[in-house]
Amino acid sequence: MAEEGAVLTRASALHALAYCERLFYLEEVEEIRLADESVYAGRTLHEDLTAPDPSGTEWRSFYLSSDRLGLVGRLDAARQRDGAWIPYEHKRGRSRRSEAGEPEAWASDQLQLTAYALLLEEEVGKPVLEGRIRYHAENTTVRVPMDDQTRLVLSRAMDRARELRSRVERPPITNNSNLCLRCSLAPVCLPEEGRLSRDPDWEPIRLFPPYSEGQVVHVMTPGTQVQRSGRTLVVSPREGAKMTFPIQQVTSVVLHGNVQMTTQALHLCAGEGVPVHWLSGGGRYLAGMASGAGHVHRRLRQFQALSDPGTCLRLARRLASARIESQLRYLLRATRGTRERGPDFRESIGIIRSQLRAVASSEGVETVRGHEGAAGRAYFERLPDLLSSSVAQDLRPSGRSRRPPRDRFNALLSFGYALLYSAVLHAIMAVGLEPALGFFHTPRSAAPPLVLDIMELFRVPVWDMTVIGSLNRRHWDARADFDVAKDHVWLSDQGRRKAVRLFQDRLEETWKHPVTDYSLSYGRTIELEARLLEKEWTGEPGLFARARIR
Ligand code: SF4
After folding, report:
1. For 206-241, how does the pLDDT look when each residue is reduced to its tens digit (9 = 90+)?
2. Any idea of the CA torsion for 181, 185, 190, 191, to the nearest 10 degrees?
3. From the CA of 108, how far away is ligand 1's center (Å)?
4. Residue 370 counted as domain residue
5. In-domain check, residue 500
6. CB 180 near ligand 1, within 6 Å
7. 354 is in which domain, residue-wise?
């Protein structure tokens, strides 16, 4: 008998437990579920099998639960044969083969079927003596006796499931790397990266998707309404044609300035875990809504790790080194073979190098912040050197100004950083971390520190390089792309559209991650780094913030 009020274990979760304990933990304890192609295919198979049988001796696709057993599950079918009930489970794949070459049930399938048998037994009030598994890929049915041994295996698995549920730590990655190739949670678990963390010579296979699936919907025209129609977002400008976006193809929605979104549309996004971000007309990040992600276990582990000053210092050093090195490499790379490397340039490079060295021996996060700030000032002083002589004077910066930006160059930087902010927040929520709990930026800031922390890795490669490159290609119109007021400069409607396009294009560009040594888009790299950060406190440290631009 299960404890009163205890969580019921899904029979399908026992399947995951027999497959890999970490998979069980991610799905059942951390509540992470991704539906990959095989899961969708499995669902279709089960839907195809749900036609009712009028004979009355067969039940199809029905739920059973039992507080006494601590189990819940949906049976594919149960049939009565000679007065005895038999549960059926349908699998798309092939059976296991015995040494004699006979078809057998896989241990994970057998465990799941045993759970169904016990549930059925309680339901019909009679012993269930066998269950059957149909393997559709080879049209084979395997019979599984419900004997003492089978029941003992189930009982032990239930004990193990209870034990795992009571833990805060994730179980380790399985030693059988073949299992990971077919695991739907590999993009979350990152087993290959975990192996690399333990063995620097490991050559990881990319199980992480190279591109983001779906699209970010930017709504920018003032007066536009975003509504819901069934499972679709409908974007209706005051003038012009409506656009529709099926929700499963949307990764996030960004609302710029004076646009509206209905409660129904917000509900749809919240229910599907699609974040919504609000930016001011001037491009300042105002607020975000993300739901569904983030289980208490993940946040507890993050809290424990980032309450430790030693961990924060280690991560802060690494983050600041990554940021400063990116700045240094970009300045050197963009001026290679040019006449821009005059005395001022060399002096700034000297400052950046000395700050980089100082970060490595800093004894406190505040000191690291000081070095990172000094390097950043030297970097921004030199950034105009990277602009070609053909760039008009009114598109060049006069120092760095943030709130509000006071020239066109700074307006471009600030707008892109706001877009980057929403992309990083999205990644943090997808991983299930707490954005307010960081290790480098101070919590005094209005923005969640962890977002600002991770952003540091991407400012140079995602946006600074994009802005400089676009200015050198004469992408911008100093009049039509900007709204210039006495005390601020913002992007115009046209300028925002151009910036969003550039930003999205940059996120979709692929590069070879120098640590994992596989190619993926910058957009996916943001999520990868957030996941590698979590690995710093889940037993696979050492990979976060190691990547550098080449
Ligand atoms: S990816 Fe591998 S280690 Fe991770 S949950 Fe799946 S099978 Fe287990």
Report:
1. 888 777 777 889 898 889 999 999 999 999 999 889
2. -50
3. 14
4. yes
5. no
6. yes
7. 308-386
